[in-house]
């Protein structure tokens, strides 16, 4: 159980630390904002409270002091400045270390706290007031009588008690232990500002049968020795066996913040009620919904065959329900991308200092939602890209001044929906990509031959190949040629794509295009040569008839005129080596990805249906044209076409044609 | 060890029974374009999409039409650290029989048309010989070959 509770605490602490870090970064921009200072204070307070509850004594001690510093700031004795934020951020990291390895990390606490106090108040930093020292032991019967020591400790923590420790010396050996006896004692220290009566009031109902010793710490010079008796182990959480309540209840974990709510009201918008669910259960739910959708497709095929009106009506109902259920289930798995953008602000701040380049980092489209799995896998590639932009993309302040640009470089991270995809762009206003340098570097590294004909975008894409780097010198951050190829690999596993655009001297833009979901999509089923394939419906723009002049292959031009726009097209029949005879009246499905359109010639359009995406096995992972497979109503398997891949195939063909034209013209 | 004996392309083969999940009557196969002949299809095994492989391609046997005896064997194989579910074709499945691994003989270096890498050994059964294919190696290479050919395609 300790493990479980400890895990809960760690999870909660991680969220609190993220919130704390966000608050500190906000504070850096708006140092006078009381609401943010309050929020920071609240986070610290909660970490301290739960930390003490779960026996992280070193953590509680540290955060208590950290909190005192912010309390002073809150009282307005000294403003928040850069120095405070810098040390506070380091302290925030230290909290993480204290949770992971309290023994090893505690040594650094004192030093950080000194720095923090110095930064926050300089001359006013008097030693913290001595405060109260409390030692108590409840009566043996207290648990049988329905008492709950946990609540007592929570109340103490609320009064500002730090360093709450259990005294375990009186606990008998296991065979002599009656789990209903309360044998544990506790000790704590409280700030001097707390009135004695407030402390005594907590124990109002227990005073008849307990040992209670409250001392002014100043008058008890032997406290340090008493507080850390060498024989006693660091306090565990409230001893489990004696606990009358079955415990794994997350609601118990954060005792402190509950009553803090009124203070929080102005700073925090109302938060929807949430509940933590294991991801595994969500995956299972998604699998079930997938099976339901397949069964529904079978039912609908049967109903069509029998044509019985009542059966058709029920089928329609079930269709509606299953599609609603699918949407609801998917929305559970969707996470706003803002949830990982927060950590990038910290990254950019640190990068800006390491590199000595002023950087203005802005984010947009934080509300854009992606499947949880995608979001998690996306964090690392984005770190690489952002680092690369800061390190290679942006020039030094002097160079920027010389080029007539503002000294502060800007990097923008934005996300937006685009059809069935989410576009994530990282834009900088630095020097841009040097196509010539990339080319010569690629030749020097034998990645391409000296006479290779590459379009500009193909050249840019070389920087995502393994072993590539144009950095003149290797820095701590980048230049080793490791990193961007990892980005490419990760994005490809997500069935996404990377685009690069750049204007010399003006900056570069990296665009990641990712599928919205990995589970179920609306699909458009088509048929070529007796084989069934499925398009993700969101990528389909329209379907037109193939003009008779294109019926047979062999014409050099493969462009369709769609309302004045030229759209290149591919024949799936050719692409998939289908030898069946060509039927009359072929159709063209116009699909788009990343703002590009291409047409795909098919025999027949079957209709749309819900499509459960089944990943292809590793044995087929190398196939570029398919993003997965699905099971149709008749139980057969159909491949799902990977629209972005097909579009880039079509574009490659277009580029080739254009190059041929260009050469002829030259 | 227990093995399942089956006939394929006129030869007798043995598959370890521990990796056999089930034996199916032939179900409709969806062709996978650009995937080659070896693992060129997909089948639906109760809601799971499973790749279907034809070992006759690996061993250079003639491909013949399915007969009423044709079966699909669903196997679970460890490939590069993962358990992968694949199905293979068999012209006829005989039965499960015990095989003493120590009686396995290595494939003779001359006089056979089998790629020696793909055979774990030759066993005896009912007075005849049976081949134990090295499925792990066959499928690992099959997957690699697939990705290599895809790379080559891209290079064009």
Give the DSSP E fraction of chain A (strand runs of 2 or more residues): 15-25%
- Helix content range of the residues of chain B, please? 10-25%
State the CATH superfamily name of the largest domain in chain A: Histidine kinase-like ATPase, C-terminal domain
Largest inter-chain contact set: A-B, 28 and 32 residues
Task: Assign the CATH architecture of chain B.
Answer: Beta Barrel
CATH classification class of the largest domain in chain A: Alpha Beta
Task: Characterize this entry briefly.
Chain A is α+β, with helices and mostly antiparallel strands and 666 residues long.
Can you tag this structure with a few keywords?
heterodimer; A: 666 residues; alpha+beta; Four Helix Bundle (Hemerythrin (Met), subunit A); Alpha-Beta Plaits; 5 domains; five-stranded mixed sheet; 20 helices; flat; B: 156 residues; OB fold (Dihydrolipoamide Acetyltransferase, E2P); six-stranded mixed sheet; three-stranded antiparallel sheet; 2 helices; globular; disordered C terminus; His_kinase_dom (chain A)
Task: Describe the model.
The complex is a heterodimer of chains A (666) and B (156). In chain A, helix 3 (57-75) runs antiparallel to helix 4 (82-100), helix 3 packs parallel to helix 6 and helix 14 (372-393) packs antiparallel against helix 18. Chain A is flat. Chain A has 5 domains: 1-128, Up-down Bundle (Four Helix Bundle (Hemerythrin (Met), subunit A)); 129-243, 2-Layer Sandwich (Alpha-Beta Plaits), CATH 3.30.70; 282-335; 337-515, Heat Shock Protein 90 (2-Layer Sandwich), CATH 3.30.565; 520-665, SH3 Domains (SH3 type barrels, Roll), CATH 2.30.30. The model of chain A is unreliable at 123-128, 220-268 and 472-481 (pLDDT under 50). Chain A is α+β, with helices and mostly antiparallel strands and 666 residues long. Chain A contains 20 helices and 21 strands. In chain A, 42% of the residues lie in helices and 21% in strands. Chain B is α+β, with helices and mostly antiparallel strands. Chain B has a single domain, classed as CheA-289, Domain 4 (OB fold (Dihydrolipoamide Acetyltransferase, E2P), Beta Barrel). Chain B is built from 2 helices and 11 strands. A 6-stranded mixed β-sheet of chain B has the order 3-7-8-6-5-4. The longest helix of chain B has 21 residues, at 135-155. Chain B is globular, with a radius of gyration of 16 Å. At the A-B interface, strand 20 and strand 21 of A face strand 4, strand 5, strand 6, strand 8 and helix 2 of B. Chain A: It is an enzyme of class 2 (transferase). Chain A: Residues 221-272 are annotated as: Disordered.
């Amino acid at each position: 159980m300790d493990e479980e509770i400890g895990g809960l605490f760690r999870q909660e602490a991680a969220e609190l630390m993220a919130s704390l870090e966000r608050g500190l970064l906000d504070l850096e921009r708006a140092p006078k904002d009381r609401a943010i200072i309050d929020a920071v204070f609240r986070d610290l307070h909660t970490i301290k409270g739960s930390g003490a509850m779960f026996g992280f004594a070193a953590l509680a001690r540290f955060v208590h002091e950290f909190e005192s510093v912010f309390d002073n700031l809150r009282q307005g004795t000294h403003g928040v400045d850069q120095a405070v934020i810098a040390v506070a951020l380091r302290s925030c990291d230290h909290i993480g270390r204290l949770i992971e390895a309290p023994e090893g990390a505690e040594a650094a606490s004192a030093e950080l706290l000194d720095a923090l106090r110095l930064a926050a108040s300089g001359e006013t930093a008097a030693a913290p007031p001595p405060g109260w020292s409390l030692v108590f032991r409840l009566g043996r019967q207290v648990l049988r009588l329905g008492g709950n020591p946990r609540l007592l400790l929570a109340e103490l923590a609320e009064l500002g008690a730090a360093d709450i420790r259990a005294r375990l010396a009186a606990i008998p050996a296991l065979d002599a232990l009656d789990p209903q006896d309360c044998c544990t004692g506790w000790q704590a220290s409280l700030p001097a500002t707390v009135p004695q009566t407030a402390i005594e009031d907590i124990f109002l109902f227990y005073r008849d049968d307990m040992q209670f010793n409250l001392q002014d710490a100043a008058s008890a010079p032997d406290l340090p020795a008493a507080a850390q008796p060498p024989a006693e182990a660091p306090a565990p959480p409230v001893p489990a066996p004696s606990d009358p309540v079955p415990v794994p209840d997350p609601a118990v974990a954060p005792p402190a913040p509950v009553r803090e709510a009124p203070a929080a009201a102005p700073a925090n918008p109302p938060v929807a009620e949430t509940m933590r669910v294991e991801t595994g259960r969500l995956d299972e739910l998604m699998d079930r919904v997938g099976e339901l959708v397949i069964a529904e497709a079978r039912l609908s095929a049967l109903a069509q065959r029998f044509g019985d009106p009542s059966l058709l009506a029920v089928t329609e109902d079930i269709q509606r329900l299953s599609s609603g259920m699918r949407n609801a289930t998917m929305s559970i798995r969707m996470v706003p991308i803002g949830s990982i953008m927060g950590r990038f602000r910290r990254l950019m701040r640190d990068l800006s200092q390491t590199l000595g380049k002023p950087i203005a980092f802005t984010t947009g489209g934080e509300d854009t939602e992606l499947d949880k799995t995608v979001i998690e896998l996306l964090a690392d590639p984005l770190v690489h890209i952002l680092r690369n932009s800061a390190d290679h993309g942006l020039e030094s302040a002097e160079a920027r001044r010389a080029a007539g640009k503002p000294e502060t470089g800007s990097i923008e991270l934005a996300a937006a929906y685009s059809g069935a995809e989410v576009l994530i762009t990282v834009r900088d206003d630095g020097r841009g990509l040097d196509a010539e340098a990339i080319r010569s570097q690629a030749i020097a590294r034998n990645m391409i031959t000296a006479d290779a004909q590459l379009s500009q975008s193909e050249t840019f894409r070389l920087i995502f190949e393994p072993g590539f780097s144009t950095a003149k010198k290797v820095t701590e951050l980048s230049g080793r040629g490791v990193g961007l190829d990892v980005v490419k690999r990760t994005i490809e596993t997500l069935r996404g794509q990377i685009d690069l655009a750049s204007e010399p001297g003006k900056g570069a833009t990296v665009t990641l295009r990712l599928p919205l979901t990995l589970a179920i999509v609306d699909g458009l089923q088509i048929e070529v040569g007796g084989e069934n394939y499925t398009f993700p419906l969101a990528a389909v723009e329209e379907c037109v008839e193939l003009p008779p002049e294109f019926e047979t292959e062999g014409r050099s031009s493969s462009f369709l005129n769609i309302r004045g726009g030229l759209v290149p097209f591919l024949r799936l029949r050719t692409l998939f080596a289908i030898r069946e005879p060509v039927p009359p009246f072929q159709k063209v499905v116009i699909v788009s990805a990343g703002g590009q359109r291409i047409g795909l010639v098919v025999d027949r359009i079957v209709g749309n249906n819900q499509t459960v995406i089944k990943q292809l096995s590793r044995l087929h992972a190398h196939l570029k044209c398919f993003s997965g497979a699905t099971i149709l109503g008749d139980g057969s398997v159909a491949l799902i076409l990977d629209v972005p891949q097909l579009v880039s195939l079509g574009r490659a063909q277009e580029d080739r044609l254009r190059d041929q034209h260009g050469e002829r013209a030259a | 060890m227990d093995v399942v004996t089956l006939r394929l392309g006129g030869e007798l083969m043995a598959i370890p029974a521990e990796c056999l999940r089930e034996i199916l009557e032939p179900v409709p196969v969806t062709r996978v374009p650009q995937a080659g002949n070896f693992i060129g299809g997909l089948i639906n095994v109760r809601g799971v999409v499973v790749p279907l492989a034809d070992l006759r391609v690996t061993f250079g046997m003639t491909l013949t039409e399915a007969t009423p005896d044709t079966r699909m064997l669903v196997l679970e194989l460890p490939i590069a650290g993962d358990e992968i579910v694949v199905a293979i074709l068999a012209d006829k499945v005989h039965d499960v029989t015990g095989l003493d691994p120590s009686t396995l003989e290595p494939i003779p270096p001359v006089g056979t048309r089998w790629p020696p890498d793909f055979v774990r050994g030759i066993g005896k059964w009912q007075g005849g010989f049976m081949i134990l294919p090295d499925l792990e190696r066959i499928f690992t290479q099959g997957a690699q070959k697939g990705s290599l050919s895809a790379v080559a395609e891209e290079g064009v």
